[in-house]
Amino acid sequence: MPVPRRTRLVALAPVVAALIALGCVSAPGGEAGSGGEQRPAPTATRTTAAGEDLEGTDTPQEFMEDVGDAERVAEAYWKAQFKKSGLEFQPISRLIAYEQEGEVDCGGQGLGLNNAAYCSAGDFIAYDVNWAFAAFRQIGDAFIFYLLGHEYAHAIQLRLRIQKEFTIEQELQADCMAGAYIGDTERQGSLKLDDGDLEELAAGLEAVGDEPGQPWFAEGAHGSAKQRTRAFDNGYQRSLEPCGVS
Questions:
Q1: Angle at 35 (CA atoms; ends 31, 39), nearest 5 degrees
Q2: What's this model's pTM, rounded to 2 decimal places?
Q3: What is the pLDDT at residue 143?
Q4: Which of 7, 178, 202, 206 has the greatest count of CB atoms below 10 A from its CB?
């Protein structure tokens, strides 16, 4: 597999807004409202202070290339892992980009803006393309690989019939699995991280931990900043062993 193009990450100022809405949806039935794969190009443009468009840096084309690379790398990684265990792998059915709230339906629930989610109903990952593109420009391209890795991990949990008692357990495991997928593919030479990528991702994870005082057993809890960072780093450094994937 060719090594995906990697670029140096840019400043992390708006990381909280970009990551805090990361969604993980598991619904019992239904299909995507679109009826098929959607790949609209981001509508955001990069401009100078004078209003002139900038070309060749963090463009929509680069963004879409990274999305495609992230999907292919995640699919190849999990296919290889399943093969090692003698299991048959089935990739997700679709990766759907959407632009409007409620445009994509997951089990009767419309997905909102500023979000990315895995939906077991229809077995797809969907994301707000303009939100993701803004995060790509503000945080860096490594964010896209984390984003797809985390959501793809939820698809793997479903395939392996992993169902934790509490949301936080499911989410921290997905962070660990995302770390393993990035770390393993980097060590294999299928992915190259630039200097600063891991620091940016770590800062992002620290920024999106649950609010202090959030009960760990609360529905929708994802884990504290330390828990999320530790889960991702465990997977990145030690592969799937600390993730409890079986």
A1: 115
A2: 0.78
A3: 83
A4: 178
Residue 52 backbone phi and psi in degrees, to 5: -85, 140
Distance in angstroms (rounded) separating the CA atoms of residues 76 and 83: 11
199: Cβ–Cβ under 8 A, 6 or more apart, which residues? none
- The residue assigned the tokens 């079986």 is 246
Q: How far apart are the first and last CA of the chain?
A: 26
Q: What is the pLDDT of residues 31-52, one digit of tens each?
A: 333 333 445 655 444 333 333 3
In order, the DSSP letters of 167-236 are: HHHHHHHHHHHHHHHHHHHHHTTS--PPTTHHHHHHHHHHHTSPPTT--TTSTT----HHHHHHHHHHHH
Query: Residue 176, exposed/middle/buried by CB under 10 A (0-12, 13-18, 19+)?
Result: buried
Tokens 């997951």 sit at which residue? 106
Look at the alpha carbons of 42, 106, 172, 220 in this order and tell me if their dihedral is positive or negative: positive
Q: What is the pLDDT of residues 109-123, one digit of tens each?
A: 999 998 899 999 999
